[in-house]
Design brief:
Layout lengths: L1 H4 L3 H27 L4 H28 L7 H27 L7 H23 L3 H36 L3 H35 L1
Helix pairs in contact: 2-3, 2-4, 2-5, 3-4, 4-7, 5-6, 5-7, 6-7
């Protein structure tokens, strides 16, 4: 029985990396969807499949947390990090679902810019997470990637503000305005979720230094 409670140092980092890879896959699917909305239903289905896989990773990580006596980093940080990672994919899934619900057939250029910025943020998180198993050696490098995520989130704010100005200027149909405002704000929210993850990672590095 006691053996089951012994630390499995690598497993939690593996869960983080698995989840991060799934985030990258979900964002790549969203990017492909924006490039070719004609294939909307298939892409949305792929993103939903990825979201289900991410839920499984989150559940396994939390189950492992409950059954492990000693953890490589603070237990609350593990729970917060895997939960906030899951929020990223949940938000991407909600964007894809809204696009299907609203039957989006043309893509506004600001959406592509926001997706590009989101991909940059997710890439920064992925690099930072890969450094966590040796965070005492790579603390400065991890923090640099966290700052990259903060920068992406800041740029997403600016893109959203500009996008909303153009939306209200260009569109006369109030229904179209409501739909696109929802989609664009959700995209910016996804970068907010990335920033939250980066803040947790940064805190883990500071605690370990």
């Amino acid at each position: 029985m006691f053996r089951k409670l012994l630390p499995k140092t690598g497993s939690f980092f593996e869960y983080f990396e698995q989840h991060s890879r799934l985030s990258k896959q979900a964002c790549a699917e969203l990017d492909a969807l924006a490039a070719n909305p004609d294939n909307l239903e298939n892409r949305v289905g792929h993103i939903k499949d990825i979201e289900h896989q991410a839920d499984d990773v989150t559940r396994h990580c939390i189950d492992a947390l409950h059954s492990t006596f000693i953890t490589p980093i603070d237990r609350s940080d593990i729970h917060r990090l895997i939960s906030r990672l899951d929020d990223i994919i949940d938000t991407v899934d909600s964007i894809a679902a809204r696009m299907l619900m609203y039957r989006v057939t043309t893509i506004r250029p600001e959406m592509k810019l926001l997706i590009k910025t989101l991909i940059e943020a997710v890439d920064g998180i992925d690099h930072a997470i890969k450094g966590l198993p040796v965070l005492r050696k790579k603390g400065a490098e991890i923090q640099k990637y966290c700052y990259d995520v903060y920068d992406a989130e800041s740029r997403a704010d600016a893109i959203l503000n500009s996008a909303l100005v153009h939306l209200f200027e260009d569109e006369n149909d109030p229904i179209h305005i409501i739909k696109w405002k929802d989609i664009l704000e959700r995209l910016e929210r996804a970068t907010d979720r990335c920033q939250e993850v980066a803040q947790i990672i940064s805190g883990i590095v500071i605690e370990a230094s």
